[in-house]
Amino acid sequence: MTAMWMVRAGRGGENVEEFLQKSVVALGWSKIGKLPASTNKAELVARMAQAYPDEKEGTHGNWAATLLRFAHELESGDSVLTYDRERRRYVVGTLSSGYEWQPQLVEDKPNVRHVKWTHQVARDGLSTGARNSLGAIQTLFKLSEDVAAELRRLQVPLDGPLPEVPTRSPLSPFPAEDEESSETNSDAELRAEVLEKADEFVEDAISRLDWKQMQDLVAGILRAMGYRTVVSQPGADRGVDIFASPDGLGLQDPRIFVEVKHRTGTAMSSKEIRAFLGGRKQGDKCLYVSTGGFSKDAHYEADRASVPVTLLTLASLRKLLIDHYDALDGEARALVPLKRFYWPVV
Length: 346
Fold this sequence. Notes:
Layout: E1 4-7, H1 16-22, E2 24-27, H2 41-51, H3 57-72, E3 79-84, E4 89-95, E5 100-101, E6 111-122, H4 128-134, E7 140-142, H5 145-154, E8 156-157, H6 179-184, H7 187-207, H8 211-224, E9 228-231, E10 242-245, E11 255-261, H9 270-277, E12 284-290, H10 296-304, E13 309-312, H11 314-323, H12 330-335
Parallel strand pairs: 1-3, 11-12, 12-13
Antiparallel strand pairs: 1-7, 2-6, 3-4, 4-6, 5-6, 6-8, 9-10, 10-11
Helix pairs in contact: 2-3, 7-11, 9-10
């Protein structure tokens, strides 16, 4: 069985669309230049230190090891995956080239391997252990055989829909660290990894809500922000799921109309945005929440709309929840119970 590698698409998956559209995975460190085949780790660490003098010595070593692994250990025919955070899916493909230096292909990520992307796996369908392993913060790491086998078992074609995933029991937010990451991480990296995993597990908890609970959570966050809300009753679909305003009556501005779509893995398109904005008038404010994210044409439609509309993804909703958690009422807190934890300042 071929090896399977995780290659992260930048911080928060910011480059995932470029990875998919250009059929690549890519790493940064553009100041280093093209990596000669004969470069050893000591030489690369020295070049890292010269190019990035403000970083710690241990960071230079980790970066050098990652880039050398990317260039030399990954082989054509190996499986590779990256995380699409907005759509809560792992995209799986097959490496189809050796290491290349292409500084114009992906911004600030000139070290490239070509990939044929073919499959996808819903994060919500994975076991707790697999989620924890895939949550390691390293830019590049090799998956264990068990996790790779689970991904292969659950993968579906990339051009089809993601399967519906049944509601799962609550997950422990801070599972044990995976063996490989705990061996190599510094204190700062470990802290970043714990925070990254915490964010992902909070998103998991939000994603497990049903559609009615999701509406109630969004309404609860708006109340915590100082608004009064009216939530539409089931079956009373008038093109808006939540109405919010300072007085709850719409007599005071802003008047906020909210649509909530809880369809994990299904990105909303420009068609849904246009339908939502139909009938809105000048002075109205609109909020569209989609746990499955938004297509590029949806973002374009929102940008050019005559009525202000904000598109809110699951990651954005998680950030709002955490930012306003202390002000949430008991009903909203009960939907996603969270516990504060402390990290030592060093």
